Amino acid sequence: MMHWYAIQSKSRKEELLCEQLRLREVETFFPQIRVHPINPRARKIKPYFPGYVFGYVDLGQVGRSFLEWIPGAVGIVNFGGEPAPVSDHLIATLRQHLEIINTSTIELSRGFQPGDIVDVYWGPFAGYEAVFDACLPGRDRVKVLLKMLEVHRVQVELPIGQITLKEKFSALAVGMD
């Protein structure tokens, strides 16, 4: 019976393992996310689960060693010595989740301008209002000036997904230049 299996790869050899699986006509899924590196020559796509890829195979037909001895592989993820199948539903959910992450991160970073008022809607600062300052390259994080007291603002770094635009705001209007 065909199942998805998580296969551990050697360090930084996920792409090699995927290619080896494809050469053997095994359907693969290698979850990756887009990042915005500081160095423009650095990779812009990174593994979501570093060191792991998924393969769709009938282990009863091809045998366990088929996946364990492929160049780039360390072995199949198992529990108690038995390979652990991954549900089709989980793979479909992961694909959908990654598509949302990969499209929304780019859109989110373009939606903010310095001086915009934002609400922090998730995380330890949920419920606070802040002034957007800058996107921090390479980390999908932003710098905001968090309104802690009526007149005091504290600079903090947050994941970009924790804020939402409230309204346009001029930092000069409140003396934050």
Describe what this molecule looks like in 3D:
With 177 residues, the chain is an alpha+beta fold. It has two domains: 3-110, Alpha-Beta Plaits, CATH 3.30.70.940; 117-174, SH3 type barrels. The chain has four helices and 14 strands. The longest helix is centred in the middle third of the chain and has 23 residues, at 88-110. The relative contact order is 0.16.
Quick structural summary:
23% of the residues lie in helices and 36% in strands. It is α+β, with helices and mostly antiparallel strands and 177 residues long.
pLDDT averaged over residues: 83
CATH class designation of the largest domain? Alpha Beta
What is the correct CATH architecture of the largest domain? 2-Layer Sandwich
Enter the CATH topology name of the largest domain: Alpha-Beta Plaits
Radius of gyration: 22 Å
Q: From N to C, what is the helix and strand string?
A: EHEEEEHHEEEEHEEEEE
Alpha-beta classification = alpha+beta
List the total number of helices: 4
How many structural domains does the protein architecture include? 2
For the secondary structure, the number of strands is 14
Compute the separation of the termini in Å. 64 Å
Q: How much strand content do the residues show? A: 35-45%
The oligomeric state of the chains shown is single chain
**Principal-axis shape:** elongated
Estimate percent helicity. 10-25%
What's the story with the biggest beta sheet? 5 strands, antiparallel
The CATH superfamily title of the largest domain: NusG, N-terminal domain
